[in-house]
Design brief:
Length: 270
């Protein structure tokens, strides 16, 4: 079996208004860990600026393309990852922000893995129109309905991330309850249209766990509830599922919700 490569990906996000927090993924940085430290192995930028120009018609594309050329000159060089990322953020005064690290172990070449990740985050998906409720909303409805039928919905509550991250963090886990020495968390994650939310959850969760465990003196266990019958042959789906697995996030399909809700009923003594 070929030895797996250890890559780290960072998304470059254009954020024209920090208050609104709206952003567009414009680029991707890939670094690889080796015996001599981390090296920059590739830089990719979007080939379609339409989404960016819709968000901010005043965008200076020449500046962004210059950034791409500057970064490409450093490919192959061993870099202090933290210093490189900080320099980029400082240069653009938060207009271009950098995502949390997205680690990946792969048997593919670095170029092939970068191709897959760039396709996920930098290309505009062509989605079929549907009259069904939007992905996450539909999953959330299924979760709420299952917990309600089991008679435990009123015993569950949303769990905000702010006490375990930074002030102002708006993220919260959809449902949670304590049982013994554990706190069980459940979050709806739609992956049918885009895997962005799954990847971001996998990147953030490992940072939340130790702080939550220390402050609450309990062990967090997170279950991400996703759509049933996902097309796991899609490389982006496999990538996101593997990231969640590496972050110790359990993944359950919506069809498993009745069993999850029944277990909650037993553990809560409802």
């Amino acid at each position: 079996m070929a030895e797996k490569r250890k890559l780290e990906f960072f998304l470059l996000r254009y954020v024209p208004d920090a208050v609104k927090g709206e952003f567009v993924n414009i680029g991707l940085i890939a670094m690889e860990s080796g015996p001599e430290g981390a090296s920059l192995v590739d830089v990719r930028f979007t080939k379609d600026w339409n989404r960016l120009q819709c968000l901010d018609p005043q965008t200076d594309l020449d500046v962004l393309e210059a950034l791409q050329q500057e970064l490409r000159q450093e490919i192959g060089q061993s870099r202090d990852r933290t210093a490189l990322l900080r320099r980029m953020e400082d240069s653009f005064s938060n207009l271009v922000q950098i995502s949390a690290v997205m680690p990946a172990l792969t048997e593919k070449t670095a170029a092939a893995e970068v191709d897959d990740v760039a396709r996920m985050f930098l290309e505009t998906a062509k989605l079929r129109r549907t009259r069904e409720p939007a992905g996450r909303h539909k999953i959330l409805e299924t979760m709420r309905d299952s917990f309600e039928k089991a008679g435990v919905l009123s015993l569950l509550k949303a769990v905000p991330a702010e006490p375990y991250t930074k002030p102002g963090d708006p993220f919260e886990f959809d449902f949670g309850y304590r049982t013994g020495s554990e706190i069980k968390l459940f979050h709806a994650v739609s992956m049918r249209g885009s895997v962005d939310s799954a990847v971001m959850l996998a990147a953030r969760y490992p940072r939340i766990v130790p702080v939550m465990a220390q402050l609450m003196e309990t062990t967090p266990i997170l279950t991400a509830v996703v759509e049933a019958e996902l097309d796991r042959s899609r490389s982006e789906i496999g990538f996101a599922l593997e990231m969640m697995e590496e972050s110790r996030i359990r993944v359950a399909e919506t069809t498993e919700m009745p069993g999850i809700a029944e277990l909650a009923r037993v553990e809560l003594g409802a």
